[in-house]
Amino acid sequence: MKPETQSRIGIYVCHCGGNISDYVDVAQVAAAVAQEPGVTISRTHMFTCSDAAQQEIIKDIQEQKLNGLVIASCSPKLHMYTFRAMAERAGVNPYQYVQVNLREQDSWAHTHHRDEATRKGIALVKAGIAKSRLSEPLVPLRVNTKPRVLVVGGGVTGLKTALALSDLGIAVDVVERSERLGGWVADWKKLYPTGQDGQALVAELEQALAQRANIKVHTQAKVTGRSGNLGDFTIRIRTPQGEQDLNVGALVMATGFAAYAPLPQEFGFGLPGVVTLPELKKSLSRGEPLQTSDGRPVKTLAFIYCVGSRQKKTAAQPQVNTHCSRTCCTAAAHLGLNLTGAYPALRQYHLYRDVRTYGKHELIFGENREKGAVYVRFDEKEPPVVSTEGAQLRVKVKDTLTRREELEIAADLVVLVTGMLPRENAELINILKVPVDRNGFFKEIHPKLRPVETVMDGLFIAGAAQSPRLIGEAVSSALAAVSKCGALLKKGYVDLEPMIAVVKTDKCTGCNACLGVCPYQAIEKTVCDGRDQVTVIPFSCKGCGACVPLCPENALDVKGYTDEQMTAAITALAQEAAV
Amino acid sequence: MTRVNAELLKTVEASGEFNAVACMNCGTCTALCPLGLTNLPREIFRDVVLGLEEKVLANVETVFSCLLCRMCQVNCPAEVKIADNVRTLRVHLNKTLHHL
Asked: Which of A44, A78, A378, A470 shows the smallest number of beta carbons within 10 Å?
């Protein structure tokens, strides 16, 4: 800690072009703090962020040999990095710069109390000075990144991720749980809208994969351990060949989806002739004809939509899938059209709640109707009932489009259009600490602006593991994850904020109370001078401070926000308020 | 409860063009009908598509009261040829009911 007598702090109070000075007497604030211990200079500027003002401050810093800086202006959200960069250019450690928010927290909040606002402004700046006097120079933590990525999942999303990373010159390990690559798509024929064969599409990707020297594929592989941090993870995997450690800079989670498995009796599931859409697609892709459970040709086909999606909680079923799987309406319409092509005499009834064939998929919905598929709309409160009469399946449904007439359809085959669910991956999620949403899908930081990043630095998500999506949409997100990996790894290093927790080894008793609260698993047990203690993993800690108030010995501090600094700031505020 | 029967549509189609399956039940036709017909075309066409023959026969007068003005047809977003379909339906009813 730097002794107070050595502090040479510059104070700059900003008018913000009137935003602050219309309500706070900035000249009075600057004058009131000029005599504070450690303050060398105190000025005001019309716009402190302007280039001219920055030049003047840099000049002051160099001429007056300032070693601390307090700027009382807007929110640090707006200009903290501006002034940190300015401090660095002038030769002051950027972490010894303190921003006081005189706009959002003072002038804008107290437009009708000018005198009081000025008094509060003085108090806020004095608190900032108190904090600044105790500030230490800090250096960003530099991680040397490994130009290698682990892709978890060998479906189309994972394979496309691997190929695109390879194109960027980044080495890839693909781990796939099953024996073969390609996931769901390898089981499908005729993909929408091109009619391309899914198996051929996967073969194409595999062929491209085989030509890349920097991609390694591990099938029948399981992730068993994780250590390290952003830019430098060590992931342990187990394959039939044994265990090995992969040293990678980032991870892309592309574990795909699972199909909803209907409960027994749900829409007649379990009755002969009641199948799910994925089952039927698989059977048709194997070249099997469309037939009833006892091998007769199908004349009438009934689809029931929204099975396992958009469910409402009930006492009997408290755990439900509230999401719309959004791909199934299109998948069912597409299958319907393909079947009309193969079996022109086939009668199709599509029993739906709402049709969500969004965007271009609307065309396929239209075409399916034009070619004779009858769409029947049911109310979610009165869902269709499937029963058998001898060998005949009967579907009863109240059609809201026909005066809520109760219709009965004698169907030869009933197809349950099941939704997409995340895969059962509890162990993997626990090992890799992947954040999930309430339906179990991987969760991004920001659904619009940061759609493939997670709160775990260096861990990206892609494809249907994040939310139900079509192949093209899954691949788009895969390529987004690739670009984020590239931005992270291509430079060779990444600088992290140095404001992280530190352990005072003379005080820590190793009670481990802090271990449980750290959301980033950044605290570890250790032994120091023969005593049990904890230590902070610098690259994993994000400086959130959750551990600090929990320590019974006050043995934890967050750099840049030490207890000493915060106490000094609060004391200065309180003294001013008491005047 | 009514049993769905695909045969009626097949028989009607034998009398001419009938493309009401493309209907998406938006109700534009009903909103525009200058006669204020409430069940023609949408509901009666749907009865034909689903094979609810009794409901169709209960509405024969409505089928013949349509002016064939085509207000509905030119505005149908699903491009159902409504007036042509009404004609086809009339031909079918003439054949089956009046043996014409």
From this structure: A78
Give A4-138's CATH code, choosing from 1.20.140.10, 3.40.50.11230, 2.60.120.10, 3.40.50.1000: 3.40.50.11230
CA distance B34 to chain A (A): 22
Please report where in the chains the tokens 């904890």 appear, as a residue: A534
A507 shares contact with chain B (CB less than 8 Å) = no
The pLDDT tens digits of the residues spanning A221-232 come to 999 999 888 999
Residues 6 or more apart in contact with residue A332 via CB below 8 angstroms: A277, A303, A305, A350, A415, A417
A25 contact partners, CB below 8 Å, separation of at least 6: A114, A118, A121
**Domain range annotation of chain A:** 4-138, 148-256+423-493, 260-419, 497-559
**B27/A176 Cα distance (integer angstroms):** 51
pLDDT, tens digit, for every residue of B28-85? 999 999 999 999 999 999 999 999 999 999 999 999 999 999 999 999 999 999 999 9
Question: Cα separation of A2 and A564, whole Å?
Answer: 12
Backbone angles phi and psi of B8, in degrees to 5: -60, -45
From the list A372, A377, A399, the residue facing B21 with the nearest CB is A372
How close is the nearest chain A Cα to the Cα of B24, in Å?
Answer: 8
pLDDT mean over A403-413: 94
Contact B3 A407 (CB under 8 A): yes
Among chain A residues, CA nearest to B46 = A402
pTM of the model: 0.83
Mutation target among B4, B7, B30, B76 for the A interface, most CBs of A within 10 A? B4
